[in-house]
Amino acid sequence: MLDKIKALSEKVSFAIGFSLILFSPIVLFLMSFLFPSGKWTAIIQAIVWGVATLFILSAADKRHSRIGKKR
User: Which residues cross the membrane (predicted)?
Assistant: First the structure.
């Protein structure tokens, strides 16, 4: 899975991670009206935020290595 994340460009990776962090709470809130789930919502949210963090850290690593090569 990490290889697939690292294969994306830094802009796409950051956009995916940022959008996951912004929109996943909204989607889970709206889904809570349809499917009552107590602790499962928090577990799903933690997994989504973990994956989003991987995307953002991958983008930051690519940007850091790209900027470091120019000097």
Answer: 12-34, 40-60
> What is the per-residue DSSP string for 33-63?
HHS--SHHHHHHHHHHHHHHHHHHHHHHHHH
The tokens of 46 are what?
Answer: 């933690």
SS percent in the chain: helix, strand, coil, step 5? 90, 0, 10
* Among 43, 40, 50, CA closest to 20: 50
Q: Look up the pTM and report it.
A: 0.78
Nearest-angstrom CA–CA distance, 53 and 71 = 28
Which residues, 6+ apart, have CB-to-CB distance to 54 below 8 Å?
2, 5, 17
pLDDT in tens, 2-28: 788 778 888 998 999 999 999 998 988
